[in-house]
Amino acid sequence: MRYKLRNGVEIKTENAAKPASQPSQFLLRLIEELPHVTSTFDYGCGKLRYQVAITDKTDTLALVDSEIQLSRVQVLRTEKTSIRTIFRGSNQILTFTDSEFANITKNLIADFALTSYP
């Protein structure tokens, strides 16, 4: 995601995401305690730190982030790829930009949402 401040400064949060090897143990424990649900979204999925843990708790997962974060080539799971490439063709994991997610017209019910903090 990108945030533009009034003074013209642009904050590029896609450059600030921690790697998947540094998840919050608190959030992992929290996710582990949650019941299994039909559908879930991870808004600001970043570098997929919680994707595996969330996928274990849901039938369908929507990964939501900026187009830049979803499409840029970066090191994910020890290889250079993009989030969109990893999950292309998946029946369980869908990718959406924040604007696409806001405009979803199909029945995607978020049973729980997790936001990660640095």
| Number of E-state strands | 8
What's the tally of helices? 5
Q: For this structure, what is the CATH class?
A: Alpha Beta
Strand content: 25-35%
* Helix-strand topology string: EEHEHEHEEHEHE
Note the topology:
Elements: E1 2-4, E2 10-12, H1 25-33, E3 37-43, H2 51-55, E4 58-65, H3 67-71, E5 74-76, E6 79-81, H4 83-87, E7 93-97, H5 98-102, E8 113-114
Parallel strand pairs: 3-4, 3-8, 4-7
Antiparallel strand pairs: 1-2, 5-6
What does this structure look like?
The protein is of the alpha/beta class and 118 residues long. It has a single domain (18-114), classed as 3-Layer(aba) Sandwich (Rossmann fold), CATH 3.40.50. It is built from five helices and eight strands, in the order ββαβαβαββαβαβ. The longest helix has 9 residues, at 25-33. The chain starts with a strand and ends with a strand. Residues 105-118 have low confidence and may be disordered.
